[in-house]
UniProtKB/TrEMBL annotation:
SUPFAM superfamilies from the UniProt entry: Cysteine proteinases
Domain NlpC/P60: 151-273
A GO biological-process term: proteolysis
PROSITE patterns hit by this protein: NLPC_P60
Family (UniProt): Belongs to the peptidase C40 family.
PANTHER family from the UniProt entry: NLP_P60 DOMAIN-CONTAINING PROTEIN-RELATED, PEPTIDOGLYCAN DL-ENDOPEPTIDASE CWLO
Name this protein carries in UniProt: NlpC/P60 family protein
Amino acid sequence: MDARLTPANARVAHESLRDQVDAPEYTQGTWHRIAGGVVDILKAPNGSRNRQALFGERVLQLEDHDGFAFMQAEKDGYVGYIASACLTDDVRATHWVCTLGSHLYPAPDMKQHEVDALSFGAQVTIVATANRFSETDTGLFVPTAHLCPVGTPHGDTVTNAELFLGTPYLWGGNSRAGIDCSGLVQAALLAAGYECPGDSDMQETLGTAIAEDAPLERGDLLFWKGHVAVVVDQMRMIHANAYHMAVAYEDIAAGVARIEAQGDGPVTARRRL
């Protein structure tokens, strides 16, 4: 079993795994929402970052141990640990942030000092709207122009990825503050209405294979071992990469040659949604 997707550790496992893994305890878990703007999903308590969760995203908490919640993210099934203090009650989200970023304010006034930053894809629960601001269930305010109703797709894969142009590269990142190749693809696809796992090796099974001699089209995905890019047109791709240390356009032919020359191998898959 892939540990990134298996809700089990040495102390507890999800009830659905009762006949598949041995654990001292099995649980159905409890649903919560992420309370901070961006929260690291860790491989182990106080360990390295695997991915990140955004404000308002829903997670299933299986355990609270020494200040860390062992959890599984609803959006992609990713399993890991987050600080327990970053969880709040499971209240149904009504809207999501469909601009690159936004802020939470203590009052419906852009001159107020922001309380938190929200990234593309963050979720909020709106209870009232007036004077260009929407009030959340916690009494904070978001610019209404930055929101779309939950369940409403936004843009296409390329348009969504292009929002992040210039965003610094961050291993395991999922936000405007820093993002990696698979985080960029996931954000772009989820917003466009597609399901998408969290890491590039998982994403390599999306859609259908494109023949080697077939021309590439806008929105196609190119994969290498440990890397993924989105095709913008037959000449260019966009990807979060450590060469530019940012989300950037790159000539496809030049990029393919560069990646192979630096020792990361050839393209391993070409996929179309």
